[in-house]
Amino acid sequence: MDGVETVDVVVIGGGIVGLIAAKTLVEDGLDTVLIEEHEEIGIPEHCAGLFNLQNLERLGISSLGRYIENRVEGAYFYSPSGRTIHIDAGKHVAVVASRVNLDRYLAEEFEDKGGRLILGSRVLEVMSTSDNLVKVKTNNGYQVSAEKVIDAEGMSSTILRRVLKKSTERNMWIPIIQLWIRDHGLDPRYVYIYFEEYLPEFFAYVIPIDEYLGKLGVASRNDLKSKLNKFLKERFPRVDIVKRASHAVYTGRPLWIDPRSNFIPVGDAAGHVKASTGGGVIMGGLIANYTAKIIASELLGEPIKRSYIKEINHLLRELDRIAKVTKFLRSLPINLLDNLFKMINDGSLLREISKSADMDLQFTSLSRIFINPKNLLRMVFKLLT
After folding, report:
1. How far apart are CA 136 and CA 338, in angstroms?
2. Would you say the C-alpha torsion 16, 21, 22, 27 has a positive or negative sign?
3. pTM higher than 0.90, yes or no?
């Protein structure tokens, strides 16, 4: 096509999921261009950066990188009435990362391996051409054609809606404000989750970076600023606010994808996010990674491993089940939520959760624990006593 560059794959969006996909593509030998609308990678920062240690390394991301801020052994959960559940694995099970530094590290890896990063360009149009390619146009006149396009544009999913006439459940995005705070006074070995009566749609959290600094988030569809101020006043009246960021978390069901099509949405654009926590890096990153491997196999004329497709479907089913269970739990009255805390707060059960639960594969790991007859009896006994 005259005047239009041609590459193997275009990735739209330079957030972490797009970067994971793009990095995988160039590692597998494909000519890849990544287009990002912002002038800098990692800005604005839209994530608390809490990642399961084992699953982070499944993505090929080292837990020893310069982007790691803290290592976590467990969590405290607080019910609206003040009940507490403490989960302690006794070892590091998760890390807290700076998303700015992590995203920039992945961008550097992508470019070092031969990928091309185009910043400050917003994709306006994606269209099929007569020669079975996909043509991408940006707001500043750049045009490129490719065999495949991966759409990792984020929650706006503008291109996705134009191309596939699909989108995530728009009413399931909840605005959130995240603060970086000083002098939180918490043990940095744990993260802290607060279920407040005035926050029925989500929860508040504090994730320590160290013994002084931490990330604090509050999400709500209505009166977000006033609810954030209420949470600060009641829980952390003495902290200093270092900086803040506003974005949204997704609590709906994922879009199912065809990784062999010529336009594939991944990450926030496709709702590949845990509805329970709003976290999409690990699950979305794994789906994007397997998608990139399928694309590489197809374009290089190699057999597509059935295990890649199987893993994508497994992860999407997991996200779908997490969304359904989360919707049910958030519909429970406050007194039933307190009863749930009471049922779970059993020493043997908590030890099993600490040992076996996976903070990403939540439905699979927790259902195995709770369906166990001995554990069911323990929970019923706790409820009745």
Report:
1. 52
2. positive
3. yes
